[in-house]
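Review form for a predicted model. The reviewer records the input and the model, then writes brief findings.
Reviewer: anonymous (R2)
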Amino acid sequence: MSAVPIFLAAADALTFPPEAVKHGINAITKPEYFITLATVAFALMFVLYKQWTRPPVALGLFILFLIFYFGSIADANFRAIVAKPDNVPITIMVISVMICIWIAFRRAAINDSRVAAGLPLLEEDRDDKVLVWPDLVYTELICLVLATAGLMVWAIVSKAPLEQAANPGYAPNPAKAPWYFLGLQEMLVYFDPWMAGVVYPGLIILGLIAMPFIDTNPKGNGYYTIRERPFAITTWLFGFLILWVLLIFFGTFLRGPNWSFFGPYEFWDPHKSEALNNVDISNLFWDFIMHRARPTADNNPVAFMPHWLVREWLGFLLVGAYLILLPVVLRFTIFKRMYEHMGAIRYVVMIMLLLLMALMPVKMVLRWLFNLKYFIYLPEFNANL
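Model under review:
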């Protein structure tokens, strides 16, 4: 009888990846751990960019990724997520982003090494001119034929993700936006709709428009580099990879029924429930520190002040310190030289965009760790932050 458990344990060990590894991956893909590991990997990507971009190292890492990915297809739960017709393009997108990041960092590593050695840039050392006819036209024609053939094969092999006709009495679970809006849908967990759907998308567009006017450094124009543009490249890629691509990854592969988080090898159980109690800064102060109910219009301890201001004074203080005091501190410390180079107006625009971008991961982590929902809770004006 003792041989049966041993046989079952051996069978579990032979699955790829082993069950222990699956449980470990499910554990570290909890959002608070996942974004921490992703941020550490993001930092190492810059620190070690000359090492990991070497073709043998990058190829080895990519082969390990493919072995692990296609080996995991044998797991029914993993396959049910990644093989969905809606999710296949997202997998292709993630792999494409990885390849494009490697090409850019590899060229930057070569250029930085050549500049340090006193050699000309990679882009200056060769002629990249190509004749439009016939070279470029033939290349585009071949790409067009191959892309069309690939799309036809894809359409035949993978069924179109068509659902039933629109029915007001039926709501899919989970109800997900198109992939390009999944980042905004994920932001709705941490911000009010007016912030996630209007303010932050507007700030993204505003930031892209203002970028050439804020950053007038001519270095890096027309060639790849990291050593000459560390702050600009790090900030831009953090916003793109961590605060956009990663949110799309969350919404596609990790958000399941009831918009709960699931590990990649975890069954999407629609009955899974997670206790989530919204806590605001005013809750922490009045309920947990002062041990009394939050002030209302009928129960205002400071009669000459609006009850909402009395209730949310700590939130206003924290947000004010973050958006007003912190820029001043950074101006005299970390960004002292940048301020002298940029001037007051450009610095204020840059630091406001930077702090508002940083507010997103701050709120995400506080939400995951402490269920903190709002710094400022103003239902009287439908304006919460």
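Findings: The two ends are 61 Å apart (CA to CA).
Further findings: Confidence is low (pLDDT under 50) at residues 1-5, 7-13.
Recommendation: see findings above.
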